[in-house]
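Memo subject: From amino acid sequence to discrete backbone structure tokens
Keywords: amino acid chain, backbone geometry, structure tokens, three-dimensional fold.
Body of memo: The sequence and its backbone structure tokens, given next.
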Amino acid sequence: MTRTDDEPPEWAKERARELMAAEEEAGRPTEVDENGPGEPGEDDGTDRVPDVPAEVVDEAERLTRLAREAVDPAAVEEYRDRRDELAADHEYTPRLREEDDTLVLYPEEWMESGTVQLDRIEDTDRAVEVSLSGPGDADRYREVAAYNDAVVDAIADRADEVHVETARSFAAFMSNHYVRTVDDATPEMRAEFREEFFPRNAWPTDEQRAVLEESLETIERVATAIDEPEP
């Protein structure tokens, strides 16, 4: 019979026979890992639980905090709608557990008429819980907030009031939403402040809007001169 191009060479067949013989002697069945070595399969226990991406959880938490901080009812509703739609895209439903101030993301199949059905819960690890009582470690939050407040005080001594008001809003934004100092803001955080937090939560005057970039530059400049907040 003529050998086709797809047929393995004789040395490969011989090697396969040797491996099969060794496995039979050890009493193990021959198995083929279709995923290749080192790659997780469907049943190898490496599936993510919960099965909502970590970045989605982070964004849901961020939108929840923004909704709580917002003073404009329309902004509150928009943040909540965005959070709910984001969770729904991954077949999850967000709920706030008020008794311990926790954001919980439940798989949609557990829900009926807005209520969790206990008889549908097959694996509690699929739910996600995020505490909203104080982002990150409480001591770290107090340290960051004190530093940011010290920067605002320093700006009040060195700059016009229009910059002070914006600095106060930026300090609150960085402390409450990211637990980071004002001079540690990334370009993405600054963009979020400009485009979302500032217009919706700071109630800026026309003058504040006109000099926003100058205010942010003032914050950064003054912060570089401050090492630690005064006790």
Observations:
- Residues 138-223 form one domain.
- The two ends are 90 Å apart (CA to CA).
- The CA atoms of residues 62 and 177 lie 7 Å apart.
- The beta strands are 92-97, 102-107, 111-112, 115-116, 128-131.
